[in-house]
């Protein structure tokens, strides 16, 4: 049985970089023409292993950066001025996009508004704890103060 290295994830065979045993015809007629796999040689196995190690290292570094950013955001207090009436009710509301823009302005971190978990827009002056997902499964809680604009 010839061995092959997967160049992409193949559902029934494995993930990218895996060394698998396949029949010669399957490799030659299906996997190679679709650029899903290549024949495994000693050199290509080393290259695939190095690629996998690099990808793991990059994922680890990205996770560390996300944890650092979450810690930074946890120490951040956002102040968002909005026009409000005498009773403290806002003329409008503070939305997830407003909070994402305030984070970018305060810390220079670009957060997608879909990662700001705000059950409903803020409509009153006050202090709120807003949960923001820096990246998948890395949340940070930001203290957000909505104040009346003078």
Write up this protein.
By secondary structure, the chain is an alpha+beta fold. The strands form three sheets. A four-stranded mixed β-sheet has the order 4-9-8-6. Strands 2-1-3 form a three-stranded antiparallel β-sheet, covered by helices on one side. The chain is elongated and about 80 Å long. The longest helix is centred in the middle third of the chain and has 33 residues, at 42-74. The protein has three helices and nine strands. The N and C termini lie far apart (77 Å).
Low-confidence stretches: none
Number of helices: 3
Cα-atom radius of gyration:
25 Å
Strand order of the largest sheet: 4-9-8-6
Set down the secondary structure blueprint.
Blueprint: E1 3-6, E2 19-21, H1 24-31, E3 37-39, H2 42-74, E4 77-82, E5 89-94, H3 96-107, E6 116-117, E7 122-124, E8 126-135, E9 138-148
